Amino acid sequence: MNNIDFYKKVMSVQNEGIKAAVATIIGTKGSTPRRTGAKMIIFADGEIYGTIGGGCGEGEVIEKSFSVMDQGIPAQHQVDLTEGLFYEDGGICGGIMDVFIEPIHQINIL
Amino acid sequence: MISHQLYELLSEALSKKQDIALITITKHPDLSYVGSKFLLHKNGLLVDENQFSLGLQSKFIEYCLPILKQHKTKTVPIPYNEIQIECYVEVFPVPSHLIVAGAGHVSEPVAEIGKMLGFYVTVIDDRQKFANDERFPFADEVVCSSYIDFFRNVPITPETYILLLTRGHKFDVVSLQELLKREEHLEVKDRTKYIGMIGSRRRISGVFEQLKSEFTDHNFINIYSPVGLDVGAQTPAEIAISILAEILKIKNASSGNSLKEKISSYSQLKFRERFKNE
């Protein structure tokens, strides 16, 4: 899927007034499942559209995005996949990703 | 989040095939700026809804324009009057153009997979019965025209990938001749990177026997015939994968080998556990 189609989806979510957030990988170090630019939409019920790589790292981002959509303020989250190769299902890639999470309905704090 | 107005401007630039970047402020000491977005065109025009000062605008242009020109989406720190700003610069390059000449069985999965890979896909055939949107719902454009007229006029750039898969070898050859004629007038760096032509070894040797005397100023290095990587493809879908794997290999300047070939021996691999604060 190309990026403009992703934003088209974001626009339709925005129009429908649905509570959601967008997470974007804005930087990576080492080996990560997806590169800079990968994006997903997270809905209030935990459903997602798109992926930033799956696994525990994605789970962390989903958790974090709930507070972002509640507060209406963007946040950054760093996913660290370097710890442990064989713990649970995470970490097999061994890199770090910086993820920017923003609410689809931003609260204007100006 | 992106506003409707910015989204419309972004779509418009893309439909006009203009390179553009969507920029998000991801760090700023004044939190009200975090999440703000603006657009930057290749000519340096900045479209901003936040009324940034002229000084800040020119700083954004100075740091973000080179990223747009390199077509490399990334995050950049920007120092400005004692403060540190960070911007995520998402580049929307004009999609590469995949031209599929011939609307036969192989062309259907080629058009579909090509679209999935993000190409702008054009299918061309000289028969109305074959060149129609019903058969190619995934193509961006289905053209019914003679091959010669089409290839005489279609814009060609290094981001144009051409496949000659017509019903008869003679149509492939006339199309190729038309393309070579045009490319001879271009610098090597401005020519296409890939012209794939289907065909057997015997046929190809016959064609090049003729072409090498006709086109003395063309090195033929961008011609791939027979088409595709050797994955044993037989069916139209398999052939489409083989062809598009070859196109990706050229587009991404990669080897096309199995990635495991980068590892000489599994038993000699070393893994070192890493911990936080290390």
From TrEMBL, chain A:
Q: Which InterPro entries match?
A: MoCofactor_Util/Proc, XdhC_CoxI
Sequence ranges assigned to domain XdhC- CoxI in this UniProt record: 15-78
Name-wise, this protein is Sulfurylase small subunit
Source organism of the structure? Virgibacillus profundi
High-level lineage:
Bacteria, Bacillati, Bacillota, Bacilli, Bacillales
